[in-house]
């Protein structure tokens, strides 16, 4: 493999992780990016840790087979439940989105009262609570499972009264706790940023993992030229385990991403 | 294998197919039932036909390995998209839920105006339209994709204003078409029967596939004693590809089913 051409591998349960890809693309314009969205098995948020670990391991293997020289787990659920296992098994630089998101929350809060919304598996793992307390002990953390937001987003109901009501129901209890910072602990949620900001009001800061993940990745990568001159640099290749639904186009447009190729590989072909 | 002890195999993408198991249990109290819910890969309703066929084939193979002597595809999405393929590959009696559901709709309608709600994949397959027209040509059929209902049910929001609003949004257009019969073309939806009836009013009859599937199964099975005397008869064994969430308990309680065992087998172990 030509030095510098090996891609940075990024994966998510579906296409929500493209929010992280967009941040990495901005920070590393010359790098080749290889994204895998496990659309044949999305969503991960309600599944068991055992299954989430198995899927994450299969995908990591597939990305490493395709010469990825670093792995970003751009899925909060997989980061919360599988990162530790992957860390023990993978030799290349490996980064999840929980610790960058926690750092963003700590940097944003003024009153130390932080809200977290995420999938059931992410919230029940307490991964964000632990990561935030590790950086700044004594923060008050209010977390809530928001399992309907991913289906609502994937249906394209971004600006919709149904979505507004679901958001209101999830967030009202933590607003009463006077949080000043809300972590969007699922890579889908930034697409609901306007609707969520409308619900929480202007005094609550929304944070997500994407920008901090890109910064953290810069620290992790071995020091080497990032904008090589070869013409096959700066490509984005997307692998999906099932042909994409309408949500892929919505996400690519919102994030201003133009993939150079989109390839379908069955989930069964990832293992082994 | 002892004659008569071989189970009837039933499968669904998740646990919604237990509505069909309950009807089969009533019709065949002495039969052993083996149910497989693919909870590690649920929901199927937004996936491609290729993936739905692959998953259905893996599950059928796993049930046949466990001596199932007949297969019921208790998932509307898999019935609509994979039944034809399975029919060409499986030697035992095989039954889907689309044709029994279509027969129930035709028997119920008085004015020949029939509504259908189902998952995206089921509706786009037009399987119900074709099955209804084959029985009674000239029916007017109005179908709508209702992708949010499964997530709402799995969250336990059975009696909830959010669910009522989603139902109203999906059904209002077909009520204006003066349907007198509505097919619940997803095994989850009977659990929303009360909420849906409230929305459509008393003049629209709700039909689902469960009872007709059990009747059709009686016609398909070779004529043999159904209530053998052996003590290990009449058992219900549940296989899941991921540990169950709270929805399994809700469904078992609502359907008054008591499984004799619940076993977890990883989806990867189904293939081959």
Describe the protein's architecture and organization.
The structure is a homodimer of 272-residue chains. Chain A is of the alpha/beta class and 272 residues long. The first copy, chain A, has helices at residues 18-27, 49-65, 76-89, 98-108, 120-125, 127-135, 149-154, 161-175, 193-200, 210-220, 246-255; strands at 8-12, 33-37, 70-73, 94-96, 113-118, 140-145, 181-185, 205-207, 236-240, 261-264. In chain A, strands 4-3-1-2-9-10 form a six-stranded parallel beta sheet, sandwiched between helices. A four-stranded parallel beta sheet of chain A has the order 6-5-7-8, sandwiched between helices. Chain A is globular and about 50 Å long.
Labels describing this entry:
homodimer; 272 residues; alpha/beta; 6-stranded parallel beta sheet; 4-stranded parallel beta sheet; globular
- What coarse outline of chain A follows from CA principal-axis ratios? globular
Whole-Å distance between the termini of chain A?
Answer: 22 Å
Compute the number of strand runs of chain A.
Answer: 10
> What integer is the average pLDDT of chain A?
93
The most extensive interface, with participating residues per chain, is: A-B, 29 and 29 residues
Strand order of the largest sheet of chain A: 4-3-1-2-9-10
Structural class of chain A: alpha/beta
Oligomer: homodimer
**Biggest pleated sheet of chain A:** 6 strands, parallel
Strand residues, percent of chain A: 15-25%
SSE run of chain A? EHEHEHEHEHHEHHEHEHEHE
Using only C-alpha atoms, the radius of gyration of chain A works out to 18 Å
Give the helix tally of chain A: 11
> What is the helix content of chain A?
40-55%
């Amino acid at each position: 493999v030509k030095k510098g051409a090996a891609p940075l591998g990024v994966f998510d349960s579906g296409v929500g992780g493209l929010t992280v890809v967009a941040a990495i693309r901005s920070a590393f314009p010359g790098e080749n990016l290889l994204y895998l969205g496990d659309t044949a098995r999305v969503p991960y948020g309600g599944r068991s840790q055992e299954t989430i670990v198995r899927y994450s391991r299969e995908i990591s293997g597939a990305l490493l087979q395709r010469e990825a020289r670093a792995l970003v787990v751009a899925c909060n659920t997989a980061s919360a439940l599988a990162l530790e296992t992957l860390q023990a098994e993978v030799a290349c630089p490996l980064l999840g989105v929980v610790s960058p998101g926690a750092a963003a929350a700590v940097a944003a809060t003024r009153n130390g009262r932080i809200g977290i919304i995420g999938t059931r598996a992410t919230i029940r793992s307490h991964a964000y609570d632990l990561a935030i307390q590790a950086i700044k002990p004594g923060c008050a953390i209010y977390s809530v499972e928001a399992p309907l937001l991913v289906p609502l987003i994937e249906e394209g109901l971004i600006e919709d009264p149904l979505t507004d009501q679901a958001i209101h129901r999830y967030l009202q209890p933590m607003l009463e706790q006077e949080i000043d910072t809300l972590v969007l602990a699922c890579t889908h949620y930034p697409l609901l940023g306007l609707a969520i900001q409308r619900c929480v009001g202007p005094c609550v800061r929304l944070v997500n993992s994407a920008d901090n993940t890109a910064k953290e990745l810069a620290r992790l990568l071995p020091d080497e030229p990032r904008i090589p001159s070869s013409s096959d640099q700066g490509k984005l290749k997307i692998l999906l385990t099932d042909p994409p639904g309408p949500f892929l186009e919505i996400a690519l447009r919102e994030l201003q991403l133009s993939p150079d190729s989109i390839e379908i590989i069955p989930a069964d072909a990832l293992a082994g």
